[in-house]
Amino acid sequence: LIPVVYTEVVELAENFPHYLARFQVYLASLSQQAVRLDLENEIKEYLLNLSENLYQAVEYLAEASVQVISKTVDFFLVLFLVFYLLYDFQAIRSQLLEIVPSAHRPVALEIISIIDANVGSFIRGSLLRCLIVGIVTGTVLFLIGMPYALLLGLIAGLFNFILYLGPYIAAIPAILLSFSPLTPSSLLVLLVYIIIQILDGVFLAPLLLGRILNLKPFTIIISILAGGKLAGLLGMVLAVPVAGIAKGLVELLKQSAPYREK
Length: 262
What we know:
about 85% helix; elongated; 2 domains
């Protein structure tokens, strides 16, 4: 797998100037078609209006770019911290238990175990989901005749870790490549990514993560929506493991003495 991906990366780097030239030719052809359709005056008027609002457009794009970069950095920072915590979890757990009074250590140990189990299950489920999305994306792109299908599938799988935003970022290189000759249309490529994203968000993520975390698919969807509403992209990422931890804590509470007496 690695040699094939490496070969595609090298080939893409060598052919990138060609793809860029083809994209420029495509833009030039659109301009020529507009002139033939007697749309030159309309285009000039549109460009004039666009230039008048250029400052606002650039300002908006700059703010949007900063937000996207900031959210992406936040996501990978949280991901790094989670992997670090899992890697050094035994030492961290021992240090936490040392500061807990002896009488409460059994309960504290159960709480830590619930957190560990849910975070670990969420990461394993997310990795499996990314693997499935990457394989499906690469396979579909290969079947429709898209070059570098394996590389594009790998990119789709990696960026799928970023909920909702990642798949659209992963679609950009595929759409740009689709402007070259002997490739599927850009609309078809975009449609492939949209359909896979819908299937992942509506079916795969809720069912897969729900099964692994022992949560209902409806709970998964509501948790992601609530997390996004409260804390944006970071909230969407943390919503599912937090829901699993909350469910585990409620079950632990039901096993406590007051509930057993009832």
